């Protein structure tokens, strides 16, 4: 675990369409805050449909860090978020302002608050092989394969939970 002391900050979290952006913009207008997006979809450029990304006028009024920072074909992990957010929080605090982190990606909030285990990076070759095998056999068969290798994990996961099955394999 990486336990880093966080600077004072405001965490505004909740599900999509719960009013987080409106509340963050109102706080931005009234308090000495700078906004950091905590959304795993908004980091990607051109992902404007289905992501509840704040519109251009909102972003001009109340700029958010960590929106539109990478191409859709690039990988951005919770570890990347933690590194970027900690750097931004330190910069914002050094300017005498308060970081206001707003979003709904709870894994990112958790990574920031609790740190991450020191696990190895995902091996893209292994992932590609798993995805190719799943394309041939289907994810229910991959779930059955996981049950042979790690019955406890397979018992926790639904056969439709593709992301977690892939990660476990």
Description:
There is one protein chain. The protein has 169 residues and is α/β, with parallel strands linked by helices. It has two domains: 10-114, Rossmann fold, CATH 3.40.50.300; 124-168, Histone, subunit A, CATH 1.10.20. It contains eight helices and four strands; from the N terminus they run βαβαβαβααααα. The chain has a four-stranded parallel beta sheet, sandwiched between helices. The chain starts with 9 loop residues before the first strand and ends with a helix. The model has no long low-confidence stretch (mean pLDDT 90).
Q: What percent of residues are in strands?
A: 5-15%
The biggest sheet, with number of strands, parallel, antiparallel or mixed sense and barrel status, is: 4 strands, parallel
**What is the CATH class designation of the largest domain?**
Alpha Beta
Instruction: Count all strands and give the number.
Output: 4
- End-to-end Cα distance: 23 Å
Number of helices: 8
| Count of separate structural domains | 2
Order of helices and strands: EHEHEHEHHHHH
Superfamily at the CATH H level of the largest domain?
A: P-loop containing nucleotide triphosphate hydrolases
Which strands sit side by side, in order, in the main sheet? 1-4-2-3
Stated plainly, the CATH topology of the largest domain is called Rossmann fold
Short account of what is shown:
48% of the residues lie in helices and 11% in strands. With 169 residues, it is of the alpha/beta class.
Provide keyphrases for this structure.
169 residues, 11% strand, 4 strands, Rossmann fold
């Amino acid at each position: 675990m990486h336990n880093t002391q966080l600077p004072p900050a405001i965490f505004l979290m909740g599900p999509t369409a719960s009013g987080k952006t409106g509340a963050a913009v109102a706080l931005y207008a009234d308090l000495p805050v700078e906004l950091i997006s905590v959304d795993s979809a908004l980091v990607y450029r051109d992902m404007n449909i289905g992501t509840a990304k704040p519109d251009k006028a909102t972003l001009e009024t109340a700029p958010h860090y960590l929106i539109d920072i990478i191409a859709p074909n690039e990988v951005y992990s919770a570890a990347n978020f933690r590194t970027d957010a900690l750097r931004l929080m330190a910069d914002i605090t050094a300017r005498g302002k308060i970081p206001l982190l707003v979003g709904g990606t709870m894994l990112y909030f958790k990574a920031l608050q609790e740190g991450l285990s020191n696990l190895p990076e995902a091996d893209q070759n292994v992932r590609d092989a798993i995805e190719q095998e799943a394309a041939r056999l289907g994810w229910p068969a991959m779930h059955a394969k996981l049950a042979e290798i790690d019955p406890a994990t397979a018992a926790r996961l639904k056969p439709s939970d593709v992301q977690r099955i892939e990660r476990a394999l």
